[in-house]
Amino acid sequence: MAPRTLYDKIWDDHLVATQPDGTCLLYIDRHLVHEVTSPQAFEGLRLAHRAVRAPGKTLLVVDHNVQTTDRSVGIADPESALQVATLARNAADFGLEYYNEHDKRQGVVHVIGPEQGFTLPGTTIVCGDSHTSTHGAFGALAHGIGTSEVEHVLATQTLVQSKAKNMRVVVDGELPDGVTAKDVVLAIIGELGTAGGTGYVIEYTGSAIRALSIEGRMTVCNMSIEAGARAGLIAPDDKTIAYFQGRPKAPTGAAWDAAVAYWQTLRSDDDAHFDAEVRLDAARLTPIVTWGTSPEDVVAVTGVVPDPDLIADEGKRASKWRALDYMGLKPGQKITDIAIDTVFIGSCTNGRIEDFRAAAKVVEGRTVKAGVRALAVPGSGLVKDQAEAEGLDKIFVAAGFEWREPGCSMCLAMNADRLSPGERSASTSNRNFEGRQGFKGRTHLVSPAMAAAAAIAGHFVDIRDLV
Ligand SMILES: CC(C)[C@H](C(=O)O)[C@@H](O)C(=O)O
Ligand code: SF4
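# 3-isopropylmalic acid complex -> structure
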């Protein structure tokens, strides 16, 4: 057999049928469902009098619309309350496992899947959510789907797909202190651009990727979609296997041994063909801050806001001017001179225990700058418990942060946590689009340590000056 990539292998193992035009039917092992993209899908099933094909392979959780404040009080916004109630009703009507807002296991869908061992290496995973690519960190083929596809998967446990091309992103070398997985992926997106990954599944390899923690790998794969890629993948290794040992839904006994034996085959063959390759030198990476309204608008924290007039392409030049205007910035402004009024630490990009540890290390014994609103929002109830067991919540609260209940929170303005017009945030989330965190809100994407440092200083600072 010709040498194959990791993507080729998982694809081949799930292929149900191929049409002459190249359209394929893939078997789906795991289906994660949240409240935003599922109501019409369940309604479709109801209208067609269909059941869910594989209830045991389907897991529901509420995340985008939940309040991150006291949950003994109902959700104030009627639309959000309705979406949450609808998911609960669909779970009951279709007999599906559901983590509601009072369940310890509740959290952002891409945080809770791996935590429960629902996500597993070598599986195909879908969710009506673009950041499903997160699960690729474990060597799962995971991608976002639309609502009509959610209905199709609920009904058939399969998905119509055509095969993507293979891209390899190699990050070799050692990351300098203060440079994190978030900076790695922002640098990659800066290199590829938001369309550079279009039509590809990206496999991340190289010594710097292998050295990343599981949480860091999830951060990298999470943002694959921001480079336009269908999915991101990292081959499972000993860290991956250790991560799943003892997880509630992970296999046990002989099934565990068989699974591990299979996972160990999940790597690209030596001579496997990649249609494109990008290489980065980890040692040259710096802490990054985004300056614009696209995740590709990256600059080193030591740098300045770029000058769009230096861009040759007229359309691109105009769009970057528009971004600067929206962001209220001028070319040449030093990044460390940009004052922020809001800090958000959380989301499926950076809402895991390691992220709160990194942020707490920066804020410990320091105080949030007067006038800055700082939110620390755990990615799940279990992350929250773990952080509290380690006393991190106390560190955040003592410094002047608000310590919240788990959910998507200020990652996007679908709940009460949002920016007001003109407000500017340092955010650990993954998108800085116009209005993403609230109407006319201005978002700068950074790592958890950089966000924490900005909360203390009231403006961006080079975290390397603090560590
Ligand atoms: C609401 C949902 C469909 C959306 C997504 O697909 O990613 C959201 O999670 C986001 O991050 O923008
Ligand atoms: S945390 Fe943000 S990126 Fe992740 S699923 Fe929620 S809204 Fe989407």
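# post-check
The chain has 16 helices and 19 strands.
The mean pLDDT is 98.
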